[in-house]
Every structure is written in C-alpha cells, then in structure tokens.
Amino acid sequence: MSAAGLEIRRFGHDDLPQIRQTIIDLHAAAAGPDRDDDFKKKFPWFVDHWGGNADFACVLAYDGDETVGFAYGAPAVPGREWWREHLDQAPEKAVTFSYSELAVSPNWRKKGVADLLSRALLEERDEDLAVLLVDVEHPRVQALYEDWGFRKVGERQPFPDSPVYAVMLAELPLR
C-alpha cells in the first residue's frame, strides 16, 4: 500500500453535513484508544467551528470506498493569525491559511498519506502563508512539517486545558 493509489476528493463548507461524521470517526480511529477522551468529545466542536467558515477547505483520501485520511482548514482572519504574536515584523505577504487538522488511519501511516493530503489541501490556496499548531510533545510530527517547509516561530496554549503547541509557519506553495 502506498499513497500513490489513493483518490483525493475536495470538499467545502456546503459539504460539511455529508463528511462531518466521517471526519469525526476517522479522527477517533487515528487518535487511538489511548487518546484523551475529553479531546475526543470536544473534536466535533472543532469540526463544526472550522466547517462553519464559508471558505472551509477539506480533502479526504480514499482507498476505494474506505476513507484513510483527511486534512482541513480555513483562511485566517486578517490581523488575528496565530503567528503574529511571535514575529516582530510580519512578512510582506501575510495573507494566511490556517491548517487546522490532519489525521491518517493507523493502517496508512508512513506511506506518504500525510504528505499527499497536506499538499492537496495547500497546493491550490491563494494565501501567502500557512500556519498550524503541533503539540510540543510530538517532535517527530514537528520534524515532518519542517521537512515540508514549515518553521517553528513560537509556542502557544490556545485553551487553558489544551497542550502547549509549536506555532509553525510556511510560505505557500510548500517546497
């Protein structure tokens, strides 16, 4: 199995009702049984929050009828991007896409699916930058994003009960 044979399908805000449960179920499967149950319970709120954005973008990877991964996000609100508090001077071109979530089925990991999904989500974006958050306790995930051109610009804890995240920024298109 490799990512090469997968079909990538694109979805937007209006498609959320048809893909919402698929995203939630795949996220739970990808997180595994050891993942914090509170986060699993909160995840549907995040799907609805991001999916409620009129410019929400989502890509799903399929092996036949089986969904094996997804990635989604939406354009950031100008002036309220996650990276701004960490840079003394904003880049000249600063229109930003907030890359919110990526999940790959455990059976499909280490096969290039994360790369395929990330590139599919970001390749057609009109924004200048992409920003994302990575749990600082997952250095291998951070390294993966660094391989794609993201760089850590700071750390933040978006909610009092959330982990501390590395704020990672990349110029688009990805290298």
UniProtKB/TrEMBL annotation:
Origin: domain of life: Bacteria
What SUPFAM superfamilies does the record point to?
Answer: Acyl-CoA N-acyltransferases (Nat)
Record Pfam families: Acetyltransf_7
Q: Which CDD domains match?
A: NAT_SF
Q: Where are the transmembrane segments?
A: none
For this chain, one GO molecular function annotation is: acyltransferase activity, transferring groups other than amino-acyl groups
Query: Where does the N-acetyltransferase domain lie?
Result: 6-171
Name of the molecule in the record: N-acetyltransferase domain-containing protein
Traced from the root, the source organism's taxonomic lineage reads:
Bacteria, Bacillati, Actinomycetota, Actinomycetes, Kitasatosporales
